[in-house]
Amino acid sequence: MDADSLLASDREHLWHPYTSLTSPTPTRVVTGAEGVRLRLADGREVVDGMSSWWAAIHGYRHPALDAAARTQLADFAHVMFGGLTHAPAVRLAERLVEVTPEGLDHVFLADSGSVSVEVAIKMALQFQRGTGRPERTRLLTVRGGYHGDTFGCMSVCDPVGGMHSMFRAVLPQQVFAERPPADPDASPVYAELVSPKHRAARLEKWESDFRAAAAEHAHELAGIIVEPLLQGAGGMHAYPAACLRVMREVADEHGLLLVLDEIATGFGRTGSFFAADAAGVRPDVLCVGKALTGGYLTLAAVLCTTEVARGIAGSESGVLMHGPTYMGNPLACAVALANLDLLATGAWRDDVARVHRGLTEGLAGCRTLPEVSDVRTLGAVGVVELTHPVDVVKATDAALEHGVWLRPFRNLVYTMPPYVASDDDVATISQAIFAAAVAG
């Protein structure tokens, strides 16, 4: 089929993420991808400023990842995980235990980030049941968060300002504390506008309110779940590492599990291998996904401590009540192992630091635009916040005119480029963001 025929059929039959079937926004046909570039059907090659929604950290058609997929495909692509196992899954579990914070010794292999959060929520609930506190059925989190689109995930997303507010009445009612204050290191605008004294006061008030919310609801709480240091699709909000340490203390004080959703932040995106590393915090349960396979295949994982695993075993079922059809998919596990080998070289550290410098410098000019309220960078993440909702169509078109694929949302024009993006690529992305901010 030619591009026009594909687009016509696409428009008639396919939903795309967060779009209308009856009045969809424009889509583009991709005919190839290599390195950090997407090749479109109209012949243009554009820099992918999104890493395919933050996952393709090494870019496309990486020889090591391609080879891992082909090698595993020659053996078998999939086998059920119920009653069977295989080398890629076992080796991946070993590697994940090695690279995650100490004590996370047990691994559940899920088939998507949302599913991993669902599993983590079940872990928290079953742990409390297994330790004699079945009345603890709610989660404490903070406003501005996003954890996925399935029902358990939606219940811990921001119930008012988030994307799922229309479902609020039918979701489990969780406990929401205020969003942590901004990280002044990530947001020069915040640092300039708010004095150190007032920043300290805001942090102190947030801590007091968070501790009060936990104390008030401790008798019914199973755990705390947050995205560490950077809230992703809830607003690309960066907050100080000190807040994570408070959450760890609160969890310990009240017998709660600390669940960290590192699906977006894990594997180097924020500058440390896991965002929790920057705070020196070890969670009881950790969710990882997205970049786990370098953007090749859908795979996620949930890791927990031995204490959590034993608590789950003590619940009335005696088993963790979840088991996806594609759990431990060998093809995905094999590619994930190759991805971890690439990350083990340590080159990502220099790459992320270099991308961060480029974005910090390249996006600074956006602060002069009247329609821009903030510019912030953290690791290989660059965000331009507008004073109004972005016109996605106009902003996307403007970025494409500058040779970059971006996908703005809400009032944000942002980028999470592949770590291997060159200095020239990062400069091009920055220029495209400026143009998108003006157009949108």
UniProtKB/TrEMBL annotation:
Transmembrane segments: none annotated. The record marks 18 as: Participates in the substrate recognition with KAPA and in a stacking interaction with the adenine ring of SAM. Its cofactor is pyridoxal 5'-phosphate. It comes from the Bacteria. It is found in: Cytoplasm. Its EC number is 2.6.1.62. It is an enzyme of class 2 (transferase). The modification N6-(pyridoxal phosphate)lysine is found at residue 290. Keywords: Aminotransferase, Biotin biosynthesis, Cytoplasm, Pyridoxal phosphate, S-adenosyl-L-methionine, Transferase. GO terms for cellular component: cytoplasm. Pathway: Cofactor biosynthesis; biotin biosynthesis; 7,8-diaminononanoate from 8-amino-7-oxononanoate (SAM route): step 1/1. It catalyses: (8S)-8-amino-7-oxononanoate + S-adenosyl-L-methionine = S-adenosyl-4-methylsulfanyl-2-oxobutanoate + (7R,8S)-7,8-diammoniononanoate. Its main location: cytoplasm. Substrate binds at residues 53, 146, 290, 323, 407. GO terms for molecular function: adenosylmethionine-8-amino-7-oxononanoate transaminase activity; pyridoxal phosphate binding. Pyridoxal 5'-phosphate binds at residues 113-114, 261, 324-325. GO terms for biological process: biotin biosynthetic process. Homodimer. Catalyzes the transfer of the alpha-amino group from S-adenosyl-L-methionine (SAM) to 7-keto-8-aminopelargonic acid (KAPA) to form 7,8-diaminopelargonic acid (DAPA). It is the only aminotransferase known to utilize SAM as an amino donor. Belongs to the class-III pyridoxal-phosphate-dependent aminotransferase family. BioA subfamily. This is Adenosylmethionine-8-amino-7-oxononanoate aminotransferase. It comes from Nocardioides guangzhouensis.
